[in-house]
Amino acid sequence: MNIIVCVKQVIDPEAPPASFKIDAATNKAEMKGAAPVIDPYGEYAVEAALKLKEARGGKITILTLGVNLLREVVKKPLAMGADELILLEDEIFTSGDNGSIANALALAIKKKGEYDLILCGREASDTNAGQTGPAIAELLGIPCIILARKIEPIDDKIKVERVNSLGYDVIESPLPAVVTVSNEVGQPRYPTIKGIMAAKKIEPIIWKAGDIGYETGISNKTKLQKLFQPVHEAKCEFAAGETPEEMAVNLALKLREAKIV
Amino acid sequence: MSEYKGVAVYCEAKNDKILPIAAEGLGIGRKLAESLGQELAAVIIGDKALAQQAIAAGADKAYVIEDAQLKEYQPDAYISALEKAIKQIQPQIVILGQTDSGRELVTRLAYRLNTAATLDCVDLAIDTGTKRLLQTKPVYGGNAQAVIITETDPQIVTIRTKAFAALTPDASRKGEVVSIPAGLDSSIIKAKIVNRVVEEVAGIKLEDARVVVAGGRGIGSADGFKQLDEMAKLLKGAVGASRPACDNNWISDTAQVGLTGKIIAPEVYIAVAISGSSQHMSGCSGAKTIVAVNKDKEANIFRHARYGVVGDWKKVLPAFVQKLKEL
Ligand SMILES: Cc1cc2nc3c(=O)[nH]c(=O)nc-3n(C[C@H](O)[C@H](O)[C@H](O)COP(=O)(O)OP(=O)(O)OC[C@H]3O[C@@H](n4cnc5c(N)ncnc54)[C@H](O)[C@@H]3O)c2cc1C
Ligand SMILES: Nc1ncnc2c1ncn2[C@@H]1O[C@H](COP(=O)(O)O)[C@@H](O)[C@H]1O
After folding, report:
1. Which residues contact A144 (CB under 8 A, 6 or more apart)?
2. Is the ipTM beyond the 0.90 threshold?
3. Domain architecture of chain B: domains with CATH
């Protein structure tokens, strides 16, 4: 099975919220003092691909689009066990809206040619959009299943368990298809020393706009007007006491008094 | 762009009732339609009987797509049906709920209509100058919000649950009901739902509970969650959790609160051993009062909490529960 996994480099979403800053002039965000990471849901998608490869064999190609891509960051999927890394590293890809990114990924997938399954994260930790997977599916004209917690190939089809608010749906789809992956698929594995050594030897393939025929790829359907940090000013009243038990008693008294519980 | 006019709200329904989020969509849709001086339409897949509910909730007109093939929800068929309806109605703005199905349908629907969608909006307004829709949505896991404009029509959005107010239903409101033939060809269904599995736990539903007791990674075990369960029972509430607690199988995945879990707005949210990541807070910041128990005084949760205890939950909770029983 040939699997393509789309993985993005992002600012660290797990850094403390206090380190989050926005540069108002450029509308760009950063996590002060934290290094970039690969997008967590992209990492779950890599894990899902590795599980499939273990069960069925095949090849895993990682597609990463962005600028200033740090090799030690974007190579993590290789260290986890993926076979190949293609970097779409060209300023032009990120000069339009998010649709431009889906266009570039779809063009790169077409150029790659051989694929049975395309995996994306359910949503990137920066955009929180959840649109790239479905967009790629529309651009390639293939089925799309979102929020997978389990993916199982049966003959030339796949069976996917799709998370919903009550439990899950079981969905069957022909291949090729796009599937977006949720955290219920299971914790991404840590790279092993052997994996890290193997990843060191793999040179990423770099594609620019010209390599994938991106001439008309830029989309400007949406525009970011403003990016801002919402303010919340809760003032926490800490329960007094010498011991945790005393504080607990004081909290109970306080909540009762305020008729909160 | 001028041929697109009015606001359309896709009204999802369950058990012969439009969902609360559909009424919330009609509530904000009404406001937007009025500031544009245009009509508000409801789009319904299913029974004609739902049309009057949508009209009572604010719609001027209800378009009903009735087709035996749409009885069971199948995303591929629903996208097709909605595409057809929107092409006929030609609204300037389309609103869906950020529900299990809304988030699944919306991007692909936008692509079929050669436009773009913005998901999970928490604020919507018409720009007084350009008359375009200002779409505010949380990004960076809730650390920031983006205001987005769609340059193409229709401008399509999904709205976050409880972010917008529904109108008080007025059963005397009158409106036109229009039937739209679905004209579906069953071969468009490629990815097919073959089974639905309900896992949700018994008792008070998380979304409906007045009190929610939620546990995080610091709870450390399924046994720990049993204690939270007892406390929730005492307070007639439900148990919620952060993602790591669900990922560790200490509690069902359906208990997850947050950006990628449930978004709730209880009266009281008691967060125990939860650090208060922006992604988690996205799911519970609508709570009226947040109470936090955490051993780390610097934990971000205390920036959101009204009441807090700095201490080990294993010591705090039993004493807290004991005192509540006495009071
Ligand atoms: C795109 C995206 C979406 C996400 N969606 C969600 C979501 O929907 N919901 C969600 O919850 N997370 C979500 N996350 C994950 C999120 O970023 C955090 O990793 C997660 O919320 C942390 O959970 P936690 O607070 O339980 O764990 P931690 O951050 O590890 O915090 C544990 C806390 O417990 C405290 N503690 C430990 N032991 C004790 C003790 N004995 N007594 C008292 N306190 C103790 C610690 O001081 C600490 O503050 C998402 C992440 C991404 C990138
Ligand atoms: N720049 C990118 N490079 C590679 N994959 C991406 C990129 N942007 C989005 N994706 C994929 O699409 C998923 C959803 O992203 P989004 O639609 O932005 O929420 C991510 O988890 C990735 O799998």
Report:
1. A133, A134, A137, A138, A177, A178, A179, A180, B108, B191
2. yes
3. 7-188 (3.40.50.620), 206-326 (3.40.50.1220)
